[in-house]
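Researcher: Go.
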Amino acid sequence: MNLVVGVGLRAGTSYRELRDLVTEAVADAGKVRILITVEGRESEPAVQRLAAHLGAELQTVAPAELRRQNVPSPSEQVDDLAGTPSVAEAAVLSTGAELVVPKRKSDAATVAVGRLAAAPGYAPGERHVVHRVLAERRDVRRGFVDLPIPDDVLTRVLESAHRAPSVGLSQPWDFLLIHEVATRRKIHDLASAQRDAFAASLPDERRQRFDGLKIEAILDTPLNIAVTCDAGRGGRHVLGRHADPRTTWFSAAIAIQNLWLAARAEGLGVGWVSFFEPGEVAAVLDLPAHIELVGYLCIGYVDEFAPAPELVRTGWASRRPLAWAVHHEAWGRRGLPGAEPTSITQDAEQAARDVAPRESGQSVRVVVGGEPADYLGRADTVVVQLGAKPEADFGVLWRPARDPAEGVEVGVEIVRDLALQGVGQIAVQVVEDGDVAAAVGRGLRVGASACGVRWRDEPVELSDSPA
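Model: Structure:
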C-alpha cells in the first residue's frame, strides 16, 4: 500500500519524537511514498531526517490550500498558529489520498496517514507551477530584448524538447540552430511574401485588422530554431508507426511543445512562424531531401509575457470553451466532466435566450451546397460541401451530415467557430436541395442567434434558362 504521512510540528521538535510518532501511526500498513507538511516546516532537521529515513518524497503545501480541506479533527489552536484548522490531516487530504489514520499527537508534533489509490502526483504547489507554465505559454512576436541566450539555458530547453515522447522511441526530430543574420534575412523575405499573399486574400475588414498584427520575429531574436522530422528514422519496424505513419510528425510536434514550455519556464519567448512554404525554407537551409521542416521558431528573452495571446487581445479570435470540445461516450454529447451531457443544438437554443447582438464584426456569406468554384471568387464566402470530399481548400468546409439532426448541429458549430474568428454577421444561402441541406441552414440560424451574430437569408441566384 502506498502511504502519505502528514506532519505538523513545532520548531525544534526532536527527530526521535517525530520518528516514534510516525512509526506508531504507520505500523506495517505499507510504504510511505510522501512526507508532507506546511510550507516553512520542510527545513526542520527532524522532518528532513525522517524523509531520508523513510525514503519518502518531502512535499510542502501552503496554509491556504490546507484551509480548503474538510478535516475531521480541526483545532482552533492550530488555526491560530498555522493559519489553518489542521496541518497533518489537511496535508494528507491535499494529495488526494484517503485518510486512514486520523490525527495523532505527541507533545510537539501531530501526524496523520493516508492511502494513495495510485502513484502519487506532485505536491499542490508544484502542480500549480506545471499548470501555470501551460497557461502562460505564449506565441511571442513582440518585445524581444537584445540579450544572448546562455549555452546552459539553451541546452536545458533542448534537453526538454529531446525528452518528448515519440512513436516507437524513434525520436524523429532534429534542431537546427540559426544565428546567422544573412540566413535569417532570407527566411524573413519568404515570410514577408507569404504575409502579402495572405493579406491579399482577406476581405477588406479582415485585412485592416490583419495589418496591425505581427506574424514573426525572425530578425528580432538572437536565435531561430528549425525543427525537422526524419520520417524514416528507426528503420522499417518502428513500434506503433505501421498503422498510422502520421505519428512520426506528431512526435516532432510534441517535441516543439516541450521546447516551448521549457523556454517559458526559463523566461524565454518563442514564436512559431508558419508564413512560408516548407520546401522554400528547406532550400534556404540546404536540408537533405529526406528531412522535412515541421516548425520554425524564433526564441529569445522578452520584456514581458502578455496576460493573453495577442490574437485574443487584438480581437482577431477568441478561445473555444472547453465544454464545446468534450464529448461523452459518443460524438455530440458534450459537456464538462461531471456535468450532464447536452447537444450543441440544446446549448445554442438555451444561449439564444440571453445573448446580446454583437456590435460589430466581419460579415461572411455561408453557402450550403453548390459548386465551390461558383462562389469562392469572393473572399467573404465560405462553402459548406455536403457531398463528396473536395480538394483541399479552406474556403470549403466538408461536413457530410448523415441526417437532418446532424445537419442542424453542423450548422450551429460552423457559426460558433466563425464567431470565435470575429464574424459578426452572416448571410445564409442554401443552394443544395434536400432535408439535410435545409437542416444545415436552420442550424446556421440557430447558431447565429446563440452567438449574437446577425443573420439574413440570401436568395439563391438562379442562372438564366437557355430556352
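Model: The radius of gyration is 29 Å.
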